[in-house]
């Protein structure tokens, strides 16, 4: 029986099993096979494994010290299917990204500073560089903290995540079709969408165009099989349009994600409201990679988000030289507030030496160290 060391961590609104790459090498087995058996998939309960039975609790982060002198840690994200016998490697998870910096410091891969320690991490799924800032009072990772985020009931350590130049990491273009707005079909009717690749590929839809309010009851959406089936067909069509798949049947389960956006209600100071679907179900709060895409969309002329954003013009100044995207230049210190089913999510957009950096603050905590056992035969 193989024994594999692992660390269980919460990053943002996700729970992630953290592995060191060398520890997942099992003779005669592929990495996908090892992860599926460890997590207990395929089984929607994942009863004979470490998976939590949902998309936000069936995630793996695989780490190694980087050979790149400009990077501290390379990490690969895996979305492990629950009922599906698949592992999706097509995107990153921004919430799980928050565990990488703290783990690397505690492991001794990065020397802790007195106060705050910066960790340069590279997501290998998307070739995305993320600068993480981890509180290290007295030269040690903070074990507790007061950072609260929507979707998590308890406070813990804050981790700042800044995505450097996140546009086009999966498809090669911020707008894979070359347009800030395209047209797809939902329930037989045309629907305007923004297809954007920043942080992760995302399909942005005005919720009103499909008969929703933008902050509808999550349980009601998850229970509406007709609505979910229609959104899944639209999402798969978008995958083909974005160049992510050759056919709708070949579209990955994890990307593109779907964001339903809406104007905020009277008296709400948020710039806009959003509900996001991930792996066919409503996300309990908001995927961080999705929030990066929404933030980039808010700074681009002609997008669905830009049309709906309330008073966004106060965050944007001047006419930019964005070429075919029609981009308007943001302030060097602009913030965006999104109303999600779980509460407010704030993101930032900075211009660092001409390079856009988009990010947010998450919270993270180590839950347990574990020894995972693989049966000899499965």
Task: Summarize the SSE layout with pairings.
Layout: E1 2-11, E2 14-20, H1 31-39, E3 59-65, E4 73-80, E5 87-88, H2 94-97, H3 100-107, E6 115-123, E7 128-136, E8 157-164, E9 182-186, E10 189-198, E11 200-206, H4 218-223, H5 225-241, E12 257-262, E13 272-278, E14 281-282, H6 288-298, H7 304-308, E15 333-340, E16 343-352, E17 355-374
Parallel strand pairs: 2-3, 4-6, 11-12, 13-15
Antiparallel strand pairs: 1-2, 1-17, 3-4, 4-5, 6-7, 7-8, 8-17, 9-10, 10-11, 12-13, 13-14, 15-16, 16-17
Task: Describe, in plain words, how this protein is organized in 3D.
This protein is of the alpha+beta class. It folds into 2 domains: 2-166 and 364-374, Diaminopimelate Epimerase, Chain A, domain 1 (Roll); 182-350, Roll (Diaminopimelate Epimerase, Chain A, domain 1). It is 16% helix and 36% strand. The chain contains 7 helices and 17 strands. It has helices spanning 31-39, 94-97, 100-107, 218-223, 225-241, 288-298, 304-308; strands spanning 2-11, 14-20, 59-65, 73-80, 87-88, 115-123, 128-136, 157-164, 182-186, 189-198, 200-206, 257-262, 272-278, 281-282, 333-340, 343-352, 355-374. Strands 1-2-3-4-6-7-8-17 form an 8-stranded mixed β-barrel. The protein is globular. The N and C termini lie close together (11 Å). Keywords: Isomerase. InterPro entries: PrpF-like. It holds the Pfam family PrpF.
